[in-house]
Amino acid sequence: MKIKQLFDGIFKTIFWLWNLTFLSIVYLGILPIIGVPLIMATIDGIIPLEFSLTMAATIAVPTVCTVIGARRFSKQPLQLMRWFYGVEAPLFLLCLLRLFLLRELTPASYQIIATIALCIAAFLVEMLYGYLGKKENVQNISDSQTSHNKQSRFLSLIGEKRSAWLQLGCHSLMVVVGIWAATLLMYYAVPVALYTLYGFFTVVIEFFKFTWVSAFWDIFRYGSWIWGLIWIPLSFILFGLTCSLFVVMPSLYGFLYIHSGRKIWQSFAAQYGKNKALIGSLGVIAAWLAIFSALQQQPQVAALKMLATPPANDTVRQTLLAKSDMIRSGLVNAYLSPYRYLSTVGENNHIYEMYKNSLNLPDGAAQTVQNSYNFLMSPFLYQGSSADVEKAEKLYGQFFDTELQKGDTEAVKHAVQSTFNREEAKAGLLNVNEEKVWLQSQAVTVKENGDWADVQLYEVYKNQTPDLQEVFYYFSLPESAAVTGIWLGDTGDLNKRFVFTVSPRGAAQQVYNQQVVERVDPALLEQIGPKQYRLRAFPIPAKREFTQTEGPTEMHLWLTYKVMRQPQGWAMPVLAEKRNIFWNQNTRRTIAGKEVKYSGKEARETWLPPFLPAAAQQPLTAQQAVLPGGNIISAKPLADANYSLPQGKKFAVILDTSRSMAAENKDVKETFEWLKANAAGKNAVDLYVASAAGMPPKFVEDVRNFDATKVTFYGTIQLKDMLQQFAQLRGDKNYDTVFLVSDRHSYELSDDRKLKLSISSPLWTVHLGGLPPGYDDATLKLIQDSGGGVATHMKEAMQRVATTAASGPSTVSVVDGYAWSYAKTPQSKKTAKSAAVAESKNAGNEGFKPIAARQLITALSKQKSSNQLTQLDAMHAVAKKFNLVTPYSSMIVLVNDAQREQLKAAEAKSDRFDREVESGKEQLSKPNNPLNVSGVPEPEEWLLLAVGAIGLLAIFLRQGRAKMVG
After folding, report:
1. How far apart are CA 722 and CA 699, in angstroms?
2. How far is the C-alpha of 507 from the C-alpha of 513, rounded, in Å?
């Protein structure tokens, strides 16, 4: 009797001492200080909601369990222990694991966690309600004698028989979970027991050495004497008690769950027979193990194996394409492995280190223990190496012809959001079409000047997140348009806005990216294609619900450009891609002085109308501008009759067979049908079929011999690689023009490699389905220097080629309904006189000069020069004089002298025109590997670390409270 009373006293002491200590620290020490700020930070978005909910659950579990223990088991010490080790401790530990270790769950890990949660719930039901079958047929069903009425209400919900079968199934799994979890916890219990015992004596020794005095003195010095006298001793009591209780948890947890499972099995067998009980239990366990075994097959193993060698023929390619879903699943799993798994099998060494240090086991024995642990933890360990992340990303791009972050954005975002990881400030691929910055208002004004007009776009942005954001646009304008300015402002006051600087493209990019890292206001506008532009503005001020700031709350942006009139009117920017920015029916829009209202889907998808009607409809007239240096640019309007198709020429057509071209299969067929019907009969047209790695490119001497329906679109090929393959196959063949048929290829997969070839013939890229966002500078240079261009239909490209040739050798380009020609001021007296007359007429046409200067830069880019940097500087000088954005010159908005000095230094470098490809791929900060350690601290080091951590926490909380009071 005395022994029973002794154990009853121990059980009550353990339960109440641990719970009351924990609840005192949380409710009296921590929550009063950080509770309100935590809620405010969660609402503001500074702390993820999932993080806060898990933290709340971690606190709620001991709270609720303490209340239930007091109400139901206060006079039953043994039941208190069952409640503590069977329900409270596992739930609390599960919350801690989710809070600090578990990230995104895989199907295998989800099965384990769900099964554990189910078993905890089943144990809870058994404690509160006992066996759910007929009580009169069963003896000694439950230790709780007060559950009959509540059991009856519970059974009425699903029925007595179904409840019994359900309970049998859950408790059958409970036996498996009990054995698995107890074994797993035992790996930690042994070292913890040794460290706890050793630590106790170390604490006593260190106490009398007074090494802890300095840490305590810092606590008192910062005014946190309450923490020093009350909360730190309580924290040590909680820590020591937790370690002690954890030592016996594996055996108690396993015993309780196995015992509970056995008891329910016996009760079920007594009611329905042993055969049914045996069949039911074994059936559930077998089904669970079958699912477990299936989920253990991680998809990246097969995916990486299938893509290890490039396919050598179309049959293999088609086989791989048919398995795209499996390959996608495997590559994404490998890429996100740091977020989905605790560690790789090879890097998990913490058990080895613990046993080697605590028990002095030899290497072989410690590794054996580690291997057995790895077997039990296999659902949470990645079967591969950390190098698979980079490998999977590369293979994904090669197979799916797009960046992984763009192709599987939602999967990546979900994995990132499963941790406390914050995204980069720059708008990357994960921010495409994200709704983080609201376009509050938009105004477009047009000032017509006959055949050309000045257009201004004015937008106001409001951040909807607690983080600084970047607004990012890819857009296109007519090839003859001239972008003339960009400004930023905190308000709509034009006199206070920050002005732009025209800078070499490489220098501007370098300074902009550096300022974004330093979180200082810049904006950057670049031309990355004949028609394509990239606009970025940072930072859009963060939104705060509670925290008041004196800084700006919105950003204002102005963009101006000049454009020639077309039959449809004045062309507006055409959006190719947006990041972070969004608009809706509440966005205020004023277009050409009139308020415009959109609703529904149109309001969400429409940035700007494609054209604004021109007020004046008089016939187009020829324009001319005489620019500095004796350069004359003329623009002659063209009628439909002026356009023609080529005859008697020799053309090369390069076909892109990347995987993304499969989406344009219909346009591919129509393009080659048009070529056969309209070009091949009057011209010699050779075809070069580019190919991804594994198969060689093909040459088809006459395009009429090509069947476009038999092409297998596979892998990825960059434009530079297609041109290299063309150069290798062509030999000594010469062509009048080279046409490259592609789609909106993935600009994000481009790189900064220099092209090791030159094409004397004009290079035209025909993009089926629309223009790409842009080009890398090497490809853009080849298009510009060769006198080529871009188009979205083969007919358009061939018409421009033929019409340019028919317009004379001085013609720079035929674009947007005009033939643009370039001439230097002649030396003869007669022509000099006519040039003087043109100069006189041109004096009243100043507004047209930036448009003319843009064509002058195009003409200069085609001229051969032995000194490329000198040629680039000459083109940049024209852009700077007329305030233009060109493929070589960008506009950057700076707000302080330090930025301007940085830009000045960058502009003086020899690489000032070297611009890097910006893929938009975000550098995700990988979570730490909690199962990989370089060594285990000694027990006395743990003591000092604990004292230091508690001291720092006290100081932090003290400062946090002071800020709140202030």
Report:
1. 12
2. 10
Distance CA 549, CA 534 (A): 31
Helix (H) or strand (E) holding 487: strand 482-489
Does residue 149 register a pLDDT over 70? no
Q: Does the pLDDT of residue 964 top 60, yes or no?
A: no
617/613 Cα distance (integer angstroms) = 9
Is the separation of the CB atoms in 507 and 892 below 8 Å? no
* 297 neighbors 381 (Cβ within 8 angstroms): no
* SS3 call for 554: coil
Mean pLDDT across the chain: 84
Identify whether the C-beta of residue 393 lies closer than 8 Å to the C-beta of residue 330. Answer: no
Average pLDDT value for residue range 161-189 = 89
Q: What is the CB neighbour count within 10 angstroms for residue 189?
A: 19
Q: Burial-class residue 290 by CB neighbours within 10 Å (0-12, 13-18, 19+).
A: exposed
Whether the CA torsion 885, 886, 889, 890 is positive or negative: it is positive
Given a cut of 50, whether residue 234 has pLDDT beyond it is yes
CA angle 753, 481, 473 (to 5 degrees): 60
Helix (H) or strand (E) holding 113: helix 107-129
Q: How many CB atoms lie within 10 A of CB 593?
A: 9
d(CA 522, CA 507): 13
Give percent above pLDDT 90 in the chain. 56
pLDDT score for 432? 64
Q: Which of 524, 517, 533 is nearest to 487 (CA)?
A: 524
Residue 619, φ and ψ in degrees, nearest 5: -60, 150
Give kind and range of the element (H or E) at residue 823. strand 818-824
- pTM: predicted TM-score of the whole model, two decimal places: 0.83
- Three-state DSSP class for residue 922: coil
Residue of 408, 413, 417, 415 lying closest to 338 (CA atoms): 415
> Does residue 305 carry a pLDDT above 70?
yes
For residue 539, whether the previous peptide bond is cis, meaning omega lies within 30 degrees of 0, is yes
Distance between CA 724 and CA 820 in Å, rounded? 31
pLDDT digits (tens, 9 = 90+) for 512-549: 988 877 666 689 999 999 999 999 998 899 887 665 66
